Amino acid sequence: MLEERALDPALHDRADFRCGVPELDDYLHRFAVQHSQKGVSTVHVLVETDQPGLILGYYTLSAAQVDVLQLSEADRKRLPRYPVPCFRMGRLACRTDQRGQGLGKLLMGCAVDRCLQARKQVAAFALIVDAKNGEAKTFYEHYGFTPCADSPMTLYLPLG
Question: Of 29, 69, 76, 84, which residue is least crowded by CB atoms under 10 Å?
């Protein structure tokens, strides 16, 4: 059974994780624990219940804001004319040997759910992502994310 958990450096084997994108691997290996401890981002991992140390994928969340002019005209109509609060999924990655299993979709769903739960306590309009390449952008667009006006590789998903 798959479980989403907060990254635990004493339990989760970060060194064994490889997703095929050096920057995403390096982040998990070298910076994830520090960023969690310093309050820069939260890191959430996906594991099998019977192999809790093996990281199948991960994502990060942090606070963010977006200039309202970056949003679509339909979204701008109902918002104030200053930057609106958001959540940012800074990283999303799955093990290379797990590609095609739907783990990216599952992790994204977990991130959206976590944002919806947090939104009950702290207001946020959308979940923002920065697509690393065209393939990632297409992935996010498939799930309803909209490119920002001046930064088409930055996309957002309204949470309302």
Answer: 69
**Per-residue model confidence (pLDDT) at position 75:** 93
Which CATH number covers residue 126?
3.40.630.30
**pLDDT confidence band for 7 (50 / 70 / 90):** very high
Q: How far apart are CA 124 and CA 119, in angstroms?
A: 6
140 is catalytic: yes
Domains held by the chain: number = 1
**155 and 145 Cβ atoms separated by less than 8 Å:** yes
| Mean pLDDT confidence for 27-47 | 97
Domain residues for the domain of 27 are: 2-158
- Measured CA to CA, the distance from residue 31 to residue 45 in angstroms comes to 14
Options 27, 59, 140, 156, the catalytic residue: 140
**Each residue of 74-92: pLDDT tens digit?**
999 989 999 999 999 999 9
28 pLDDT band (50/70/90 cuts)? very high
CB atoms closer than 10 angstroms to residue 136: 17
Is residue 50 within 8 A of residue 42, CB to CB? The reply is no
